[in-house]
Amino acid sequence: MLYNLLTPLAEDFIFFNLFRYLTFRTGGAVITALIICFLIGPGMIRWLKSKQGEGQPLRDVGPDHLSKAGTPTMGGLMILISAGISVLLWANLTNPFVWIVAGVIAAFGAIGFADDYAKLTKRSHQGVPGKLRLLLEGGAACAAVLAYMMFTKDTQVTGLAIPFVKDFLLPLGLFFVPFAVLVIVGASNAVNLTDGLDGLAIGPVMIAAACFGLICYLAGNAVYAPYLGIHLVPGAGELAIICGALIGAGMGFLWFNAPPAAVFMGDTGSLSMGAALGAIAVIVKHELVLAIIGGLFVLETVSVIVQVASFKLTGKRVFAMAPLHHHFEKKGWSEPTIVIRFWIIAVILALVGLSTLKLR
Asked: How would residue 59 be classed by pLDDT, with cut points 50, 70 and 90?
């Protein structure tokens, strides 16, 4: 909004020329989302407590299980509101990519909200039926992918970039749509599976958002993209604003989610933020890099798949409990130890993912 309103005035007022720069507006998006989250956080937590009574149903895992009783969920609303307002203020609202990713965030946020609401009303870990939820997620992701293909100026829209390989896109043809849908839905649910301890999911989400903010800026730049040998996606740079807003809103949420958490993110936040990362990765042609940068989410998901497959095939469990963070809880690791060590892993994987930008 500010970009659209103020940049036409730059010829008369030189200060407004700042709003032409993605770096300035991304920084503004970070700070704006952070401040909004700080301002609305206390009131929203009180409101969620008043509406939810006993709070989120908890799994009997770890020594801190009972101390978390009564903690409200749906704290992802704080992130969605803060990031949403920030994006509206700082992004170029004529860019279709902004609206596509914003639509993905809103749709998956709504699905997550419905899931959280069902869990609260049933006082159960079972929310919206799994098949129905996947159907809704797939439909939202498919609509976003088709919209992206309709509005992009990229002539190689169905290509898949390979990490560490320069100037090459693997043509997927008709398989691009189901592949892109799988990336978005998979990223969404991978973050959702990781969200099991105070601060565990939001830290790696912010790390991944920071990485993809840089990738968006470079992939959308006609100078830097050819220099680095990455695929140029005209208009993709504007998505750095969304990444910045997610970082700012994530930091604001973490203020309230840090142990002992005053509020949980819930599916409202985890599904929407994971989907946002997936959608951005699809648009900038870095789907496989997302699997590296978001490798922690991949590990958590694989642990669940391995656990279920092993139990069905052999009747034995590989892990003490899945997802992986609960396995370490069962092994006696304290919650802060797990969270900090997983954050360290997320940083290492992010550095490996960013190295693909240069090592080609």
From this structure: low
| C-beta of residue 283 within 8 angstroms of C-beta of residue 236 | yes
Q: Does residue 152 form part of some domain?
A: yes
Does residue 190 fall inside a structural domain? yes
Rounded percentage of the chain residues whose pLDDT exceeds 70: 94
pLDDT, tens digit, 9 for 90 and up, residues 231-267: 999 999 999 999 999 999 999 999 999 888 899 999 9
Number of compact structural domains in the chain: 1
pLDDT (tens digit per residue) in 186-209: 999 999 999 988 899 999 999 999
Is residue 59 within 8 A of residue 71, CB to CB? The reply is no
Sign of the C-alpha dihedral computed for residues 201, 204, 209 and 212 taken in this order: negative
The dihedral sign for the CA sequence 123, 124, 130, 134? positive
Q: What tokens were used for 181?
A: 């849908």
DSSP string, 189-236: HHHHHH--STTTTHHHHHHHHHHHHHHHHHHT-TTHHHHHTPPP-TTG
Residue of 360 and 322 predicted with greater confidence:
322
Residue 126: other Cβ atoms inside 10 A: 11
End-to-end Cα distance, the chain: 38
Which domain range does residue 299 map to?
22-355
Q: Is residue 16 part of a domain?
A: no
